[in-house]
Amino acid sequence: MNPMNIVLFAALLYVLMGFVAFLVYGEDKRRARLGRHRIPEQTLHTLELLFGWFGALMAQQVYRHKTRKQPFQMVFWAIGVLHFLVLGVLAFQLFSS
């Protein structure tokens, strides 16, 4: 597979899943304000793992949601580090040869 196709596919995944994560965070914030049943944190972290981390980061800032809860943030940032490590390794593999 062409390296540029891999990059474009990964970028598309990050954009689409980031959008989904952003919307889900917004819905969770809405439910929190209304005192309704919340979206489980495990679901939010799963979306972050499935290419939605950047959208989740934006949603946390826009909605001011899940920014103070330390156990949640520790997992969130661990997932972020994982994404950067994987992206770095992939970039090195694709473009070093």
Quick overview of this protein structure:
84% of the residues lie in helices and 0% in strands. With 97 residues, the chain is an all-alpha fold. The protein starts with a helix and ends with a helix.
Describe this structure in words.
The chain has helices at residues 3-34, 41-63, 70-95. The protein has one domain. The mean pLDDT is 94. It is mainly alpha-helical and 97 residues long. It is built from three helices and no strands. The two termini are 14 Å apart. 84% of the residues lie in helices and 0% in strands.
Which helices and strands appear, and what pairs or packs with what?
Blueprint: H1 3-34, H2 41-63, H3 70-95
Helix pairs in contact: 1-2, 2-3
List the keywords.
97 residues; 84% helix; DUF1294; transmembrane; mainly alpha; DUF1294 domain-containing protein; transmembrane helix; single chain; membrane; 3 helices
Integer tally of domains? 1
Mean pLDDT comes to 94
The biggest beta sheet is recorded as: none
Contiguous uncertain segments of 5+ residues: none
The arrangement of helices and strands along the chain is HHH
**What is the end-to-end distance?**
14 Å
**DSSP strand content:** under 5%
- Total strands: the figure is 0
Structure class = mainly alpha
Helix content: over 70%
Radius of gyration: 15 Å
Structural shape: elongated
DSSP helical segment count = 3
